[in-house]
Amino acid sequence: MIVIYGASWCSWCKKARELVERLELEHEYHDIEEGANVDALSKLLAESNKTAKTIPQIWWNGNYVGGYSELASTIENTMGVYGHGKI
């Protein structure tokens, strides 16, 4: 499962969400403007020994991916496009 932390005003967050939805990948989206999600994101970053200065912040199967570009690269490298068109 892919877990995305982002915000409604963030274009890269929107692109990440659109990408996983277009490829029909199982995912959860958490808006960091909701207080509990900020705490959850902080905890995940601490557990991953990562710091975040931008959003989105993305995990796949519990492994830290990074932002949108890293998500797109990970999908390309692990899945290919499987007839879904370019990523």
Please characterize this protein's 3D structure:
The chain is an alpha+beta fold and 87 residues long. The protein is built from three helices and four strands. 41% of the residues lie in helices and 21% in strands. It has a four-stranded mixed β-sheet with strand order 2-1-3-4, sandwiched between helices. Strand 3 and strand 4 form a beta hairpin. The relative contact order is 0.22. The model has no long low-confidence stretch (mean pLDDT 85).
Strand share of the residues? Answer: 15-25%
Element-level helix/strand string: EHEHEEH
How many DSSP E strands?
4
Strand adjacency order, main sheet: 2-1-3-4
Give the rounded overall mean pLDDT. Answer: 85
From the alpha carbons, calculate the radius of gyration and give it in angstroms.
Answer: 13 Å
Instruction: Give the biggest beta sheet.
Output: 4 strands, mixed
Structural class: alpha+beta
Distance between the termini: 18 Å
Residues in helices, as a percent range: 40-55%
Shape: globular
Number of helices: 3
- Can you tell me the residue ranges where pLDDT is under 50 for at least 5 consecutive residues? none
